[in-house]
Amino acid sequence: MPSPLPSSLRLFFSTVWLAILGLVGGCALASSPNSPSPPALSAANDRSMKKVVAALSLNKVSEARKYLGAMPSSREKRSLALLIRHEEERQLLKKALADISRKDLLASAATIKPLYHRDPRDVSLLLGSLSPLLREGVLEALVETGDERLAIRTARLHSPHLDPSGRKFISFAYARWAQRREKAKRFSDALGLADQSRSLDPGNPLAQEIEKRVKLLMKEKVNEGLAAYRHRHLKKAIRLWQEALRIDPSQREPKKYILKAQAILKNIRTLDAPEQ
C-alpha cells in the first residue's frame, strides 16, 4: 500500500478549500452599491459564482466549469478557474493513489500523465511518497504506455546521482523509446536514443539490436546508391545517399559520394546546354 501524501500536499489542498470559503464571502462585496457593474449583472454574477462553489463542494467539476462559462470576465472568474483547476488535480491525484493501491500500475500511469502536464510538482510529491520498488513499477508502466520521456525525467529527479539500478532503468527506457522511433521509421532518432541507452548500459540487448538494424539499413542504402551510380542513375544514387545521411548525418562516405555525383550532373548539364 502506498504511504499517505506528504503533509505539504495535504496542507496545499486544505488551503485551496479555505480559499473557496473566502471567495463566497467576497461575493457580497462584489454586489455592493459602490460596484461599477449594473445591479442586475452583479446579482447574476453572484448567482453564477455561488453555483460554481456549490458544484465544487460536491466534487462536480464539469458542472462547475459550465457555470463558470456563464460568468463575464472578472477577477472572481479567474480565481474560480484556478480553484477548479486545483480540484481537477486533486481528483487526478486521488485516482492515481487508488490505482496504485490496487496495483493497477498501467491505470495509474495513464492518470499521472495529464497530472504531470498540469503540475509536475504534484507528480513528484506523489511518487516521492511511494516505496522505491513501487515507484519503479509506476515508472515502468509509463514506459509501457509510451511516455518514456516522463519516466526518464522523473527517475532522474528522484535519483540525481544514479545508482546501478537507476542507470539500468533509464537505459531500458531509452531502448524502448528507440524501439518506438524505429517502428515509426524515424531511424536517426532511434539510433540516437539507442546510443544514449548504451552509454548507460553498454550491454543493453535491445539497444544493441536496434543499433545493428539501423546501421545495416544505412549501409544497404549506401550500397544501393553505389549500384545506381555504376549504372549512371545519378539522381537515384544521390537520393539513396541522402536517405543514408538522414539516418546518420555523421557518416562521411555518403557526403563524398553525393558531392561527386552532383559534380558529374553539373558537367553533363553544362555539356547539354545550347551554345550562345
Molecular structure report:
This protein is mainly α and 276 residues long. Helices cover 80% and strands 0% of the residues. The protein has two domains: 154 residues, no CATH class; 56 residues, Serine Threonine Protein Phosphatase 5, Tetratricopeptide repeat. Helix 9 runs parallel beside helix 11 and helix 12 runs antiparallel to helix 13. About 6% of the residues have low confidence. It is elongated and about 85 Å long. It contains 13 helices and no strands.
Quick description:
The protein is mainly α and 276 residues long. The protein is built from 13 helices and no strands.
Oligomer: single chain
Helical element count? 13
- Poorly predicted sequence stretches spanning 5 or more consecutive residues: 5-13, 27-33
Rg over alpha carbons: 29 Å
Structurally, how many domains make up the residues?
A: 2
H-E string: HHHHHHHHHHHHH
What characteristics describe this protein?
276 residues, single chain, mainly alpha, 2 domains, Serine Threonine Protein Phosphatase 5, Tetratricopeptide repeat, 0% strand
Topology record:
Elements: H1 7-30, H2 39-57, H3 61-69, H4 75-101, H5 105-118, H6 120-128, H7 132-144, H8 148-158, H9 164-183, H10 187-200, H11 205-230, H12 234-247, H13 253-272
Helix pairs in contact: 1-2, 1-4, 2-3, 2-4, 3-4, 4-5, 5-6, 5-7, 7-8, 7-9, 8-9, 9-10, 9-11, 10-11, 11-12, 12-13
